[in-house]
Every structure is written in structure tokens, then in C-alpha cells.
């Protein structure tokens, strides 16, 4: 029979195996390339040490990933504060809002894209709209359209190819 401590250790080992890539990714993205691989590994290990220390305070009915991500992000931010104090700001910050010309260009491009999508033959048009814009699963769409999943993939490929050709030509009709 396992002791409570042994069960706790096995649960931690399982969490480490499952979540190490996830935690390392959160740390790496938070550090934004300002640390070496060893620093990322150390911070990742620190996150699991915190998990070991606070295991009893966690709600077992809740997903562990958000808690680990928060701890990982906070550890990485603390590391940045200690190792990169007061990083200088760029002299000019980019304008976050697009200007009228850029907005007009975006609207024109969107109109051309939708015209090209509307010009696709069926079922490519339906596949394209439902898969890319409505974010439906390909398996569901294919089943409802009476296609196999591989046939649906092939039609999506052909649809993308046709759209690319049409948009590169600058035309809105095929």
C-alpha cells in the first residue's frame, strides 16, 4: 500500500511528464529570447517545485494547466526583473491604429477575397467558408456534403490554389 507521500510524488511525476513542454513554452515565450536554454530549464523546474510545495492547496477538480501557466509566467517575469532591469524603450513607438489609407486597402483586399471565394464552384466554396471562417471540423463538413474527409481535403487544396491564382492575377472573376 502506498503512503500519502508516495502517491503525492507519483502524481507530481505524472504532472512533470505531461506538462513540462507546456510550462517550458510559457517560460520561453514570456522571456522572449532574453534567456538561455539553461535558464528556461531552471525556471521550468522551479514551477514544478512550487507545484510540489503547494499541491495540497490546489483544487483537484480544476485543470492544472492554467495554474501552471500563471506560475510559469510569474517566475519568468521575476527572472526578467532581476536579470534585465530597466530595459530602454524604443525612441519611437509604432502607431497602433492603422491610418485611413491602410483601412481602405484592407477593405479593398477583403472585398476582393470574398468575391474570389464567392466565385469558387461548389462544394469548394462551402468547404472554404465553413472550414476557414466558421471554423467547423472538416470531418463534419465532409459528412454533411457527402464527401470523404480526404476528398474534402483535396477540394480545400484546389480551392486555395484557385483563390491564390485569382488574387495574384488581380481579378475578381475566374
Give the gist of this structure.
The protein is mainly α and 174 residues long. Helix content is 72%, strand content 0%.
Average the pLDDT over all residues and give the rounded result.
83
> What's the count of strands?
0
* Radius of gyration from the alpha-carbon trace, in angstroms: 25 Å
H/E element sequence: HHHHHHH
Estimate the global geometry from the Cα principal axes.
elongated
Stretches where pLDDT falls below 50 for ≥5 residues? Answer: none
Largest sheet: none
* Number of helices, where a helix is a run of at least 4 consecutive DSSP H or I residues: 7
The helix-and-strand class reads mainly alpha
Give the fraction of residues assigned to helices.
over 70%
Roughly how many Å apart are the termini?
Answer: 72 Å
